[in-house]
């Protein structure tokens, strides 16, 4: 393993160990765990923040890939049930891994890329929305899928404000699930 990959692996391990306390991860800790010199983080990534963003993207990419496999495991469900199940799984991940998820979503919003995590999530949901509403044209499916992904991100990022506004505690899994199901009904018009 080269130095850059060793730094990434060490950082991912520290992210997983520190959970919500990413600010406690130091370049010194990263380099010590990677077995590399202190200057290599800046050399390869420019800063600790850029390194963490790269690691978060890799973590989320792994989740999106697992998402594809899970879609195959739930073949017996209706299209709506699949969308509901995977949406709840996505929201649960966002809330259970808040620090990593916040970095991922905000990075995608601040510096959108063609294949960033938001786009990959959108692409993964596109066929499910289409399967739920085969009567919609391609433009409508794309627009409604974009709305769904945007609402999920906002539900996560602004859950405290939305909870107060709608009088529902979105930090609670059951409430979040019910909210998500209602949003699906609203978007899909079913």
TrEMBL record:
Which Pfam families does the entry mention?
A: TetR_N (PF00440)
Keyword terms of this UniProt record? DNA-binding
In its keyword annotation, does this UniProt entry include DNA-binding?
yes
Q: Name one GO molecular function term.
A: DNA binding
User: Which residue ranges does UniProt annotate as crossing the membrane?
Assistant: none
Q: Which residues bind DNA?
A: 26-45
Which residues are in the HTH tetR-type domain? 1-63
Q: What is this protein called?
A: TetR/AcrR family transcriptional regulator
Give the species: Merdimmobilis hominis
Q: What broad taxonomic lineage does this protein's source fall under?
A: Bacteria, Bacillati, Bacillota, Clostridia, Eubacteriales
């Amino acid at each position: 393993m080269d130095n850059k990959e060793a730094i990434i692996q060490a950082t991912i391990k520290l992210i997983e160990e520190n959970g919500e306390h990413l600010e406690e991860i130091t370049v010194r800790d990263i380099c010590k765990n990677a077995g590399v010199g202190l200057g290599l983080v800046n050399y390869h990534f420019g800063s600790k923040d850029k390194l963490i963003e790269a690691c978060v993207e890799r973590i989320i990419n792994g989740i999106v890939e697992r998402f594809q496999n899970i879609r195959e495991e739930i073949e017996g469900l209706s299209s709506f049930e699949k969308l509901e199940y995977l949406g709840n799984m996505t929201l649960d991940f966002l809330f259970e891994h808040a620090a990593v998820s916040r970095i991922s979503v905000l990075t995608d919003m601040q510096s959108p890329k063609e294949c960033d995590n938001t786009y990959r999530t959108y692409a993964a949901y596109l066929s499910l929305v289409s399967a739920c509403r085969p009567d919609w044209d391609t433009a409508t499916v794309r627009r409604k899928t974009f709305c769904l992904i945007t609402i999920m991100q906002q539900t996560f990022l602004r859950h405290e404000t939305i909870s107060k506004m709608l009088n529902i505690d979105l930090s609670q899994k059951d409430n979040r699930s019910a909210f998500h199901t209602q949003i699906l009904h609203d978007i899909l018009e079913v």
